[in-house]
Amino acid sequence: MLASRPISAIATRIFGSGIPIFMLHRMVQDDKPGSGHTPSFVRQCLEFLKENGHSFVSVEDVIQFLRGKITLPTKPVAFTMDDGFEDQATLAAPVFSEFNCPVTIFVITGMLDGLLWPWFCQVEYLIDNSKVDVIELDLPAGEKTFALNSPHTKSLSISYILQAIKDLNWESVPETIDKLAHATQVEIPLAPPPNYKPITWDMARKLENQGICFGPHTVSHPILSGVDDRQAEQEITGSWQRINDELSSPSRVFCYPNGRLSDYGSREVDIIRKNGIVGAISTVAGYAERSAHADNLYNLPRFGLPGSLQDFIQYCTWIEYAKQKLR
Question: 5-115+195-248+301-326 falls under which CATH superfamily?
């Protein structure tokens, strides 16, 4: 009832409105277990938007609107996907195409080039495939014991270790993952296992012809605040160059790895601007809004696509926006 059109119209006049940008990561088949969103859930979300007068726009459209360059249709909503895994192309992209809904996939270019598979995937793989019940791992906060005797404890361990690694200097990350491999007694494959296969450049070109956009997400997905000036330059500029080499019309929007406010700063914004990129997005929750501060275009917030339709509706209507304003 609170999301009905008459109430929404009145509430929007009172509280104003912002533009929600949603991010997705992994996709899973409707009939298979796994961590991620299903095509049927994404379809439900898009059906709700279509039936309730929302408009589908790209994240670059949002930035150009915030710059005062274009106008947007009524009740705009944008969608993004991070990293560039194959399931995003095979499971999500067809649903977005079915609704003529723009979506921008931000790719780790080194992954598409076959040079690496991401460190955070390696952490997940090592723990998921370990046969030991308990491990000890030396982390900056000291040695810590992790239980791996159930799916639940493995999930908790993955979350904790990923968070700890995100706070490391980037040079220390390979050593920490080697320690984890030794502790879990699992060998890291040179090539990504099937569940971590990336989109290929050929797939990206075909999807681009179907209206799917691609944007830069660094070469190797480091936490940028943990690397030196030279590597920050290489990661941002290198990913932008590769995506321009391979694709005809890449999105001029950058996506920060991890995307917390502590993960990037003015140095990264300067490099991004120098490359002619018009804006950048974080993972800080919030709505895109016009601001007098030009740097805000390089700190655009996003919402993670929630797991329930009810929560999604709340983000797309005045309810969540009003709650944020009232806070």
Answer: Glycoside hydrolase/deacetylase (3.20.20.370)
Q: How many angstroms separate the Cα of 26 from the Cα of each of 62, 91, 167, 262, 286?
A: 24, 10, 23, 24, 21
Q: Both tokens of residue 296?
A: 């805000």
Work out the end-to-end distance of the chain between its first and last CA atoms, rounded to an integer number of angstroms.
23
CA-CA distances (angstroms) from residue 187 to 119, 130, 170, 193?
14, 10, 21, 12
10 Å Cβ neighbour count for 83?
Answer: 23
Phi/psi for 299 (5° steps) reads -140, 35
Alpha-carbon span 194 to 278, nearest angstrom: 35
Q: Which two tokens stand for residue 294?
A: 């030009």
pLDDT in tens, 266-298: 999 999 999 999 999 999 999 998 764 567 899
Instruction: Evaluate if pTM is beyond 0.85.
Output: yes
Domain regions of the chain by residue span = 5-115+195-248+301-326, 119-184
- The size of the chain, in residues, is 327
Question: Could you give the CA distance from residue 178 to residue 114 in angstroms, rounded to a whole number?
Answer: 20
Cα 65–278–78 angle (5° rounding)?
Answer: 50
- For residue 250, pLDDT over 80 is answered with yes
199-224 confidence digits (pLDDT tens): 999 999 999 998 899 999 999 999 99
